[in-house]
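Colleagues,

Please find the record for the two-part complex below.
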Amino acid sequence: MATAYASTASSSRQTQKIITRIIQYFILSIIVVIMFVPIVILLFGSLKTTGEMYSQPYTIPNPPHWENLWGVLSTPVFWTMLKNSVIVMLGTTAGVVFVCGLAAFVFSRLEFRGKSWLFNLFTLGLMFPINVAILPVYFVLRQLNENNVPLIDSLIGVILVQLAFQISGNILILRGFFTSIPSELQDAAYIDGCNNFDFFWRILLPLAKPALAAVAALTMIVSWNDLLVPLVVLNSDELWTLPLGTMQFQGQYATDLALVSAFVALSAIPTVIFYIFAERQIVSGLTAGAVKG
Amino acid sequence: MQQLPAIPNILKLKRESSVPRRLQDTLLIALFLSPALVLFLLFVIYPIFRSLYFSMFDWNGLGPAVDFVGLKNFTDIMTDKVFLKALGNVGLIVAFSLGLQLPLALALAVMVGRDLPGRGMFRTIFFLPYVLSEVNVAIMWMLLFNPNPDRGLINAVAVALGGEPVGWLSDTDIVLWSVFIALTWKYFGFHMLLYLAGLQNIPAELEEAARIDGANSFQNFFYITLPLLGSTIRTTVYLSVLGSIQQFILVWIMTKGGPVNASETLATYMYRFGFVRFQLGYGSAVAIYMFLICLIFSLIYQRLSRQPDYLTGL
């Protein structure tokens, strides 16, 4: 009796578990479909002619038309924007890793008077995102321009502003990573005759490579996708970055949805490829930042 | 640095190195901190004061600001219906985010859990929109929201199911929902990611023990999982509110804040005055208000989140 009871109980639990699993997968699959619909519709659109886009906008492009994609790829403007985006992205990322790496080392490993005060000052930046500060920042850029520091309409200006608004968050992330490196290592290094710089350069940085990669991957995404700073800082169209160009292109060719789709698809593809390869870094950077923030 | 030959070697060694080392340390600290400090002060802190100054002028950006108006911009803003509308919209976006987007993210995170086969794949897919640029996301959703059922997929589905086509971006009662749908599509994966990381930190034994004690899944969720996720939830609430306050690009591209200001946000309002109408003094005052809102919210948040540990678990 007892064993029969136990076996029916466990088999009913088993069926219950299977049913739960089926429901879970069902709901998750619906969400997966919802996630893919906007992307798939866009990709379909980029493979259609303008006429097809109007007559059958959400069907599978059969046969696919590559004209719009080639059309965008064969315009020099697209490549100029791509180049500008790459320059800004690399500049901002290199800057963030360098500037925040140095500062985070000091905040995590060295002691000095006013340290916590200074650190709190930096965390203040978390409260003021760039979207809120963009007009005030524009004033300062103008003021610098009047004093012969030409940052308006220059990629350097875009890089510096993006960099400045990445400082707070990334110091926080890197400080967390640096602090987690055991202090015994630091003591051992000092006993062996290292000074602070040696410790930073020879021991901490090599150990912190995953953290620096996470910060770099995160910054690359933010910089690559940023529209607001280029929009406000840049005037000349030969300096436009991809998001800025996408926005202008969308305004200009609003009626040619197939062409706009092709443009958007081509500007999004690098991001998606990068995401697939750097997902681990991006995720670890984001979770570290959010948990410590 | 004076040499004292009478002192034994070991002490001399210590003396010799201690003074320059301290100087060396100070130099290193200054050198390492200055790039971050200079950029931060110049582009993040100083602008706040600069715009505080300009907010007291009536200034169109041409020539120097000379037309001092005191606090007039600030009082004008408070009586502008469009600003109040923008403020209300931001409040709604915050409410939608906290009431719908975060619970959705949490529910999906719990569903994916720690060990569902395919967990990594779901995470990758749900998080994908987060890495796409807001411009691209806005354009994708504009295609879907096209009011003509022959062009826009959503209305096509609505008509196929026997409904009426909806003016997703042209109906003043609906446009904010449409924007919110696009926002949720893009951002819920980020919050889900944080919840998944939080769940990872909850020991499975706890839920196992509760189950053995006879707790059902609901009790398990509300008495074990939810309290232990406390700190993660607080973090997502903070990020979500701050993100909602500053919402700009997606709205600007999809609707420009329209129709008739129905989807105006604080950031689109500021951008319009600052960069479209060139009323820079007025725009500065808007920026100051936004700073204050962010600051007050952050302070309240810090106050509230400093709860005793036993309330939050982690």
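DSSP finds 14 helices and no strands in chain B.

Comments are welcome before we finalize the supplementary table.
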